[in-house]
Design goal:
This protein is of the alpha/beta class. Helix content is 44%, strand content 14%.
Amino acid sequence: MRIGMVGAGYVGLVSGTCFAEFGWRVICCDCDEAKIATLKKGQIPIYEPGLETLLERQVSSGRLSFTTDMGEAVRGADAVFIAVGTPSRPDDGHADMTYVYQAAKEIAPLLEGYTLIVTKSTVPVGTAREVESIIRAENPEADFDVCSNPEFLREGAAINDFMHPDRVVIGTDSPRAVEIMKGLYRPLYINETPMVITNPETAEIIKYAGNAFLATKITFINEIANLCEKTGANVQEVAKGIGLDGRIGKKFLHAGPGYGGSCFPKDTLALTQIGQKYGAPQNIVETVIWVNAERQRSMAERIVNACGGNVEGLRIAILGVSFKPGTDDVREAPSLAIIPLLQEDGAHIAAFDPAAMETGARHLEDVEWCKDAYEAAQEADALVILTEWNEFRGLDLDRLGQIMKARRIIDLRNIYKIPEMESRGFQYVSVGRGDAIR
């Protein structure tokens, strides 16, 4: 089969490369000439483990190519995926559908023979129907169907998520479209990956509901962590105790500074706006959004309190600015809220992240970017672990104790054990384990 992938951002690039790995001919199209030029050189503009190697192999095989010409991607394709951005509108939080609808208008006159149009972007309910209406208006003679096929890719594990998904969601009213989608995902279908076949509206809500539920789990365990701190309980043991219940599950029950990233913040906000539009308020999700914002502010306060209530003139070492390990994505990361709040209180920030310093520098000002964790910790009055990169789990604690001005570590990811840190002479503050500074 031949696939046109409109949009060579994170979702489009990963999906297109993995479809090529399945054996299909894929042409990725993007209007960003610099991005396409970079991809043609075999370089990727994002940080995603394993993607560059896979991309190089598919380009060499001739199954994957890149273009700025929409016609080259669309004409003759069996399926055209729309994988463009749907950021939150700054005025009201609704998903901005400008790029999706513009792509539909540009695709319409280029269709040749029967073509399946697939919305891969995260989109509000009703988008597939609207895309169909746009294409019908632009090209009444076109022979096509529209299908919603939401992505469930975790940054840092996207290739594995595409190749070994929990499920594939196919939202369409057309039996013909269903068969094409099963064909595209045949390597998964024959391995008995669950295929959820439903209508477009259900598929669109599945995506938002899934992300909102995971964001709710994170927020729930953070509130339980607050209770643990007040009562002497240990949130990690609480999470283990409830996570062993098969109805709950252990994933996303890690207390910390709150959720961030490219999906949870905008998708929870979009879901609340969808609920308002249809007269079905999503009160739980609205509360989750508020609690998460408060969580990030309270973590900044925790750092200040750990430093005696005043960080004026202090050097604070920050380890990790990406919203999670395995990615250079800092969108809506806790660091973007916490670091400016510390700076407002007069702290000097020295930061290190294994992958996200370049992207972090675009969003954070007056930060001293360091070559490693130890340079950041040099003469630091406090060290804060914001992102649980694996390399931060094995820090040389003796070395840190020697180079820091004060042996003070605020671990917002609970990656160290309290007895170990106290035995090394550190003032150690973590989350939900009874050692928080109040």
